[in-house]
Amino acid sequence: MSSVLYDTPGPRAKRRNVIFSVIFTVLLVLILWWVWRTLDDKGQLEWSLWEPFTEAQAWTTYLLPGLGDTLKASALAMVIALPLGALFGISRLSDHRWVRATASTVVEFFRAIPVLLLMLFANEFYVRYSDISSEQRPLYAVVTGLVLYNASVLAEIVRAGILSLPRGQSEAAMAVGLRKGQMMTNVLLPQAVTAMLPAIVSQLVVIVKDTALGGVMLGFTELLNSRGTLAANYANVIPSFIVVAFIYIVLNFILTTFASWLEARLRRSKKGTGAVLGGDDVDDINAGEVGGTATIGTGGKK
Amino acid sequence: MFDFLEGYNVLGAFWMTVKLTALSAVGSLVWGTLLAAMRVSPVPLMRGFGTAYVNIVRNIPLTVIIIFTSLGLADIFGMTMGAPDDFDVQGFRLAVLGLVAYTAAFVCEAIRSGINTVPLGQAEAARAIGLSFSQILRLVILPQAFRTVIGPLANVLIALTKNTTVAAAIGVAEAALLMKEMIENEAQTLAIGAVFALGFVVLTMPTGLFLGWLSKRLAVKR
Amino acid sequence: MMLRKVSAAAAAALVLSLTATACGGDDKDSDSGSGSGSGDKIKIGIKYDQPGLGLKEPDGSFSGFDVDVATYVAKELGYKPDQIEWVETKSADRENALARGDVKLIAATYSINDERKQKVDFAGPYLLAHQDLLVKADSDITKATDLNNKKLCSVTGSTSAQNIKNDLAPKAQLKELGGYSECIAALQSGSVDALTTDDSILAGFAAQDKYKGKFKLAGLKLSNENYGVGVKKGDTATIDKVNTALEKMVSDKSWQKAVDDNFGPANYKNEPAPKIGTIVK
């Protein structure tokens, strides 16, 4: 196979690749062997520590309710953040300067602040100024933090989604005499929403990952937190940790795969404009897990 | 008016955030570039490793990774980071290690997509004059790719700055941990929130503006 | 058509995730129930992660000394065991949960002290515990000053390790982890030398099957922790009733039985039943 970087390997290159493969394999095996040995030495591979995960109760009593809370907080955050994000995203495209400026300030502000700070603040705010029961408060605080942050990220996704549409769309809409509002609701938004779907699903991965922060710092009883209660019973700190990490990987892998499938599907589709916002765009807007000032944002201001 | 700040080392906490950010940035740039090199290398096994690493690490919460450095690497694997007797230093270095492991996956992806934007003809021309794979990567592709990836890398850096707050989960005395302590003990919730929010705006805004400007300036004209 | 199909798939996924969520939500609701006024239920705050005191068992039931005391008290207040709703009250949330009326009582290794008494009232005490050290069975740490240049583990937000460092062993290295089970794992692997908190809690962990025989309590009485039942500030009627219940629990030997059931396996030499209203400083 040839690529940008190298030709189809000839005999010498093939030999060299084999040597590299062997060295790399040896290194990997050595590392894995060391990991396995150390775990064994420290007694972490004892079957009694892993056995609980083969029984239904470990799942029904600890992990599944925890996973339920993770999904609940994620879904709530997404459902609340979406309309807010759309509102701010569209406001940033407004023709009125002050609307644009206000929306931009709010969006840039919340994207510059770590989501943990937003959660901690919301938590303390609810302790002092609200009537939320102490069991429900961590959920509220986590969702609030996630909504504030993700609404601002989604605003950027919505804006990028609308901007990704070919110019001809708005020009045609104006040519047939639609007003700005009509153009937005009848022409641009419906197409932008389709284009944004993969990006929105990708954002869900970010949200799911961020709920874990609430589990550790606010005592929200999500997956990572419920692991603690589980480990208090079975005395299996490391195994439970590995299992929980595995659950996160599977859950997020499903979401990521779904997003890529959606994206590929949309790119292939003949109908529509072919404009798609995919996972990579989300990475740019988010810049990793907890957002960043996207190039669109900062570049635009310059 | 700001007497709630008394008795708290806010600047020290933000200095810790800066140190975490700077060290992790350097580390993840190195490790991320190596990963990217693996992902585009002609050796299938390395490609497989690079892909697996990125896909696994990106799907795990950073919180899980950071806590694992403490419970797993330090306690089980005995990786005390050269500070077996000083938990403050050890926690800081473990946090940097966790941040590097996580951020490198995003750096790798940014660089890889940067490599993909370099036109095929560049590599073909380099091959035609007889350069080896590592020479092509070092002399032709990466210099061009790094220019296009400055924008995405700037975003990764800003994200990293904010992600350092997760180090609070293993008790590193950075900004978020101090804010948690202050907000629980002092009456001025709003003022404390504002001070810390402002701190992060100050930390991230210049990076964004400067690197945004730089990436425009260095953009490869095609 | 294509687009519609994609949207439909996305919508289906959303619906699926929401249904999954709804299931989780139902669980939560049946746990917590309605907040106020229901005369046929009583909400009691306990710990979920402390073997021997308050532990959520794999079958979803709860066990431990705190749980037994709370169950007895609830019975005396006129609630059958199935009328009790257990609520997890983390240490930092206990005063708030009582003040807001989220729970009626709290029995969660809740030491009576002056700072807390400004915010809540206490019935009891029902157990006298002491701050102690848990060390490996073959450890040579016998007193707090031995901890100089040693590594001491405690949980985030706990003051017990800080007290040792401040008063007894200034050169001790403190490691804070998220929970006691993490500290025990660190103790087992040798990355810390001792773990400190109340001896009652330590005994519960040391008695777990996987740790049996591996650890021992140093037997230091570094402090007096008078466990009380937390009640909303000013609710003297409830305090009186709880105190009467606790007295009865001791006199009809239920207290001793609960001690034997929960601390017996841990080989924890507890103090005799404290006298109600007498706080050992």
From TrEMBL, chain A:
Residues 67-259 form the ABC transmembrane type-1 domain. It holds the Pfam family BPD_transp_1. Keywords: Cell membrane, Membrane, Transmembrane, Transmembrane helix, Transport. GO terms for biological process: amino acid transport. One of its GO terms (cellular component) is ATP-binding cassette (ABC) transporter complex. The chain crosses the membrane at residues 18-36, 73-94, 106-127, 139-166, 187-208, 237-262. The keyword rRNA-binding does not apply. It is a multi-pass membrane protein. GO terms for molecular function: transmembrane transporter activity. SUPFAM superfamilies: MetI-like (SSF161098). CDD domains: TM_PBP2 (cd06261). It is found in: Cell membrane. Belongs to the binding-protein-dependent transport system permease family. This is Amino acid ABC transporter permease. It comes from Streptomyces dioscori.
Automatic annotation (TrEMBL), chain B:
The keyword Transmembrane applies. InterPro entries: AA_ABC_transptr_permease_3TM, ArtM/GltK/GlnP/TcyL/YhdX-like, MetI-like, MetI-like_sf. It is a multi-pass membrane protein. Residues 14-211 form the ABC transmembrane type-1 domain. One of its GO terms (cellular component) is ATP-binding cassette (ABC) transporter complex. It is found in: Cell membrane. One of its GO terms (biological process) is amino acid transport. This is Glutamate ABC transporter permease. It comes from Streptomyces dioscori.
UniProtKB/TrEMBL annotation, chain C:
InterPro entries: Bact_solute-bind_prot3, SBP_3_CS, Solute-binding_3/MltF_N. Residues 1-22 form the signal peptide. Residues 41-266 form the Solute-binding protein family 3/N-terminal domain. It comes from the Bacteria. This is Glutamate-binding protein. GO terms for cellular component: extracellular region; outer membrane-bounded periplasmic space. Keywords: Signal, Transport. It comes from Streptomyces dioscori. The keyword ATP-binding does not apply. GO terms for biological process: amino acid transport. Pfam families: SBP_bac_3. Belongs to the bacterial solute-binding protein 3 family.
